[in-house]
Design a protein that fits this description.
4 helices, 16% strand
Length: 93
Amino acid sequence: MICPVVPHITDVKPLINWLEPLTDTIWIYGLSIEKRSDRNWQNLEIILKEYFPDLREPIEEIVLSTDHQFWAQLRQELEDIQKDRQLDLSIHV
């Protein structure tokens, strides 16, 4: 399981390469947060401010929107990998 995929931080493709020989199915879940007041966002925001201050705003924009272009592009890339390599990926981004 690759979870959560945090935009601009989690590099999914190398993780798939690493997991591929070890498992039959790989589940991939993107980080989705409904609103800024959610505890998950508040916790993540603390981490981002400390370790990735330049990424806080772009990540916030993406994780607060399930239909952001980032997710659509990642989903397409994962579906292409799934098809090309005949992997059993359970994609939830």
